[in-house]
Design goal:
The chain is mainly α. It has one domain. About 80% of the residues lie in helices and about 0% in strands. The radius of gyration is 37 Å and the shape is elongated.
């Protein structure tokens, strides 16, 4: 068994080794901080992509339902295709699109009223 020479405890710790320990600790904490920052940035990017994915799928579903509604597909079929629990859920999404139908109806009523008015005056 090798024996070490007897030295005082103070002589084992020198300025160089203390500096090396400090340097290693600061480098390790810098590497750890860098890894944490990179992981946080990755998480932010994943969250942003997930939000974008949800927005794209929502837009695609909404566009499909709107086009089906304009093609006069029954709301029950649209509701089933969208996977809604009831037709009422689908109708809440389709209510704003009744404006086009109202505009067409109003135009036809105004046209009829004008024709009737011109017939009465002449």
């Amino acid at each position: 068994m090798p024996s070490f020479p007897k030295q005082a405890a103070n002589s084992l710790v020198t300025e160089t080794s203390q500096y090396f320990v400090f340097f290693c600790r600061s480098v390790c904490s810098a590497i750890l901080a860098k890894c944490l920052i990179i992981n946080v940035l990755r998480l932010i990017i994943v969250i942003l992509f997930f939000i974008a994915f949800l927005n794209i799928t929502y837009t695609a579903r909404h566009t499909w339902a709107t086009l089906a509604y304009y093609l006069e597909v029954h709301p029950g079929i649209i509701s089933e295709a969208m996977g809604h629990s009831s037709i009422k859920v689908t109708e809440t999404y389709l209510k704003p699109f009744n404006i086009k139908k109202l505009d067409e109806t109003n135009k036809s009523i105004i046209k009829y009223a004008r024709e009737a008015y011109t017939k009465l005056n002449y």
